[in-house]
Write a structure and sequence with these properties.
228 residues, alpha+beta, five-stranded antiparallel sheet, 10 strands
């Protein structure tokens, strides 16, 4: 009886061991399956598909913006004046989900702002521009990361200037003039009460990096009205 009892106990141990090995094997197979799925998700093909989707989405977004600003872009392609804008891009200045149209110049690896347009009740509308002639009237526009736009006007023969600090309305119904004031653009220390930094508090603001935006040549723009 002792021998039979020992034999039964041994059999139970062997059976339990087999069951344990089977469970362990199934767990390992499941883990391998999950790793295989993850590896497939991270393969070059899947990364390429993700990139293609992002590029397609970006392309669709640009096409939509081009349609919204088609009236302005059509005029820009026909502009033959000296100092006309060469490039354009779209950027959501006030982060309300609607992009603004920004035109500019590209020279020696640097980007310069030419003009800003925004949607006012769905209509492409001029906001501000930068224009520096060798002599005569001058203008300057700057976009800041806090969603504001500063615009200044002055004459090359005078240190006096007129400035405006704008903010776009989140409902695309126009703009608000946060401040309008005179300041001195030349011959004054930056700490002077007449300087632009003191009058408008621009020293604490950060300009957007124009080089970080995705620009397109205006000559490459195809009028949406001529597309079949």
């Amino acid at each position: 009886r002792d021998a039979g009892f020992c034999s039964n106990k041994l059999g139970e141990r062997i059976m339990k061991k087999r069951v344990f090995l089977i469970i362990l094997g199934l767990a390992l197979l499941a883990a391998c399956g999950q790793n295989k799925i993850k590896n497939q998700e991270n393969t070059p093909d899947s990364s390429k598909r993700t990139l293609d989707k992002e590029q397609k989405s970006s392309s669709i977004s640009v096409e939509q913006d081009e349609k919204l600003y088609a009236s302005t872009l059509d005029k820009l392609t026909k502009d033959t004046s000296e100092g006309r804008a060469q490039i354009y891009t779209f950027y959501d200045i006030d982060k309300n989900g609607t992009n603004e149209l920004i035109t500019g110049h590209h020279s020696d690896g640097a980007y310069y702002l030419a003009a800003i347009y925004y949607l006012n009740q769905g209509t492409s509308t001029y906001l501000a521009q930068s224009k520096v002639a060798s002599a005569g009237s001058r203008e300057s526009a700057t976009i800041y990361t806090d969603g504001t736009v500063f615009y200044a006007q002055w004459h090359s023969l005078s240190p006096d200037a007129k400035g405006y600090l704008y903010r776009l309305r989140s409902d695309n119904s126009g703009i608000d003039v946060l401040k309008e004031a005179d300041f001195q653009i030349a011959g004054v220390d930056s700490n002077s009460e007449k300087s632009v930094d003191s009058v408008f508090g621009l020293a604490s603001k950060k300009e957007i990096d124009l080089a970080s935006l995705t620009w397109k040549d205006i000559e490459s723009y195809q009028s949406k009205s001529s597309v079949g």
